[in-house]
Amino acid sequence: MRVAMIGTGYVGLVSGACFSEFGVDVVCVDRDASKIERLKKGEIPIYEPGLDELVKNNVEQGRLTFTTDLKQAIAGADAVFIAVGTPSRRGDGHADLSYVYGAAMDIAGALTGYAVIVTKSTVPVGTGREVERIIKAARPELEFDVVSNPEFLREGSAINDFMRPDRVVIGAETERAQKVMRQLYRVLYLIETPILFTSLETSELIKYAANTFLAAKITFINEIADLCEKVGADVHDVARGIGLDGRIGKKFLHPGPGYGGSCFPKDTLALVKTAQDYGAPLRIIETVVAVNDKRKRDMADKIIAACGGSVAGKTISILGLTFKPNTDDMRDSPSLAIIPALTQAGAKIQAYDPEGMHEAKKMLPDITYCNDGYETMKDADAVVVLTEWNQFRNLDTKRMKSLLKTPIMVDLRNVYTPADMKAAGFTYICIGRPKA
Ligand code: UGA
Predict the structure, then answer these.
(1) 190 and 316 co-located in one domain
(2) Which of ligand 1's atoms lies nearest the C-alpha of 253?
(3) Which of ligand 1's atoms lies nearest the C-alpha of 150?
(4) Whose CA is nearest to atom 34 of ligand 1?
(5) Which of 137, 163, 166, 185 sits at a 20 to 30 Å CA gap from 223?
(6) The domain boundary residue, chosen from 182, 198, 214
(7) What is the C-alpha to C-alpha distance for residues 230 and 103, in angstroms, rounded to an integer?
């Protein structure tokens, strides 16, 4: 089997490396020559645990190569994956499909024989059909099939998610295309992964429905956490109490400062727009988007309240900047809403993140970046846990107290327990749990 992977962003690089690990010959293509040069030297442009090793091994085995030459990559490929970006279009929230359609045109120009064209990027319903139309219009004589094969990878655990997925969804409508896809995922068939064949449109919608459902689940528990604070209940016990019901499930019920990242914010918005366009509005998801946006701003107010109602002239220590741990991704991170609100209110910020500071400096240039978590606390009026990196889970409270001006902790990820923090002499504010 031979695969061409167009786009060496997060999805393309992880999928390409994992397919090569399955024994498939993969050529990753990108028009960014400097990126391809770096990849050829084994430099991985993103932080994803295990990816460097996986790429290195498969490059050494000769199953994974990188090129800017699209024609050469596509010639003779059994499957051509489109894994280019689909950012939110400025102004209206729709997914911007210009890169996807551009790739379709490129593919049409380069195909030499039958291949399946697979959309791996998250694309709105109807995109696969349009890709089909574009290629057919450009090359009416060509034999090909368009397939939708969305990914369900989480940043930080993407390789495991690819190698041991809960399911694989494949929108493939011909026997011939299904055969190619079955062959590609042969390794997963052997470990009895459920593989679901559907129509193109159904597969495209499954991806959005999954992400928006998860975003709704998080937003639900976040609102329940707010209610817990008012009535004196414990949100973790509530989450466990409802999550043990198999119909609800335990996962994605951890409260926090609001979901972020490159997927949930963009995909919830895009599905809302699609649904409006089709006259079938998704009012639940519209509300989820609004509640989540407001939540990030509310978190700044929570921090200000913890500091006695004002942060003017105060120094706030921030632990974690990325939207979640084990990634350097800053896209739509709650920190991007919370920190500017704090600085506008007059606070000085001292922050540290294990992997995200390089990206963060571009987006939050006016704050002080420190070398580790403790350094952020020096003479600070309060410390805020914004991202639950492991290294922030077990900090030395004595040392923290000796550094902080006042022992106030706002734990937006609930990694500490109220009783322990009280015993350590902290004023401890968290999410949805009663005070000790
Ligand atoms: C998400 C989905 O989980 C993946 O299945 C999907 O493939 C991916 O989007 C995508 O569409 O590409 P990811 O964005 O990497 O993956 O991150 P998640 O682990 O889902 O977390 C998203 C956000 O929700 C983070 O801000 C996280 O802190 C937050 N979250 C998650 C919570 O606040 N509580 C939870 O219980 C879980």
Answers:
(1) no
(2) 36
(3) 7
(4) 254
(5) 166
(6) 198
(7) 52
3-class DSSP state of 359:
helix
The total number of structural domains in the chain stands at 2
By annotation, the residues acting in catalysis are: 263
pLDDT in tens, 236-245: 999 999 999 9
317 inside domain: yes
Report phi then psi at 30, rounded to 5: -150, 145
Q: What is the tens place of the pLDDT at every residue in 293-341?
A: 999 999 999 999 999 999 999 999 999 999 999 999 999 999 999 999 9
**CA 262 / ligand 1 centre spacing (Å):** 9
SS3 352: strand
Q: Which amino acid is at 120?
A: K
Nearest CA to ligand 1 atom 30: 259
pLDDT at 435 over 90: no
Q: Is the CB of 239 under 6 A from ligand 1?
A: no
Ligand 1, atom 18, lies closest to the CA of 154
Would you say residue 211 lies in a domain?
no
Task: Indicate the angle between helix axes 10-21 and 51-60, nearest 10 degrees.
Answer: 50
Query: How many residues are there in the chain?
Result: 436
Q: Is there a domain that residue 302 lies in?
A: yes
Structural domain harbouring 13: 2-198
Q: What is the pLDDT of residue 367?
A: 98
Answer with the one of 167, 198, 229 that is the final residue of a domain: 198
CA of 209 to the centre of ligand 1 (A): 14
What distance in Å separates the CA atoms of residue 314 and residue 62, rounded to the nearest whole number? Answer: 56
**The residue to which tokens 């509005």 are assigned:** 281
Q: Which two tokens stand for residue 388?
A: 């639950």
Q: What is the pLDDT of residues 379-397, one digit of tens each?
A: 999 999 999 999 999 999 9
> How many Cα atoms occupy the beta-carbon half-sphere of 54 within 13 Å?
22
Mean pLDDT of the 59-71 span: 96
Residue 220: other Cβ atoms inside 10 A: 18
Q: What does the block give as tokens for 15?
A: 């999928």
Question: Which atom of ligand 1 lies at the shortest distance from residue 262's CA?
Answer: 14
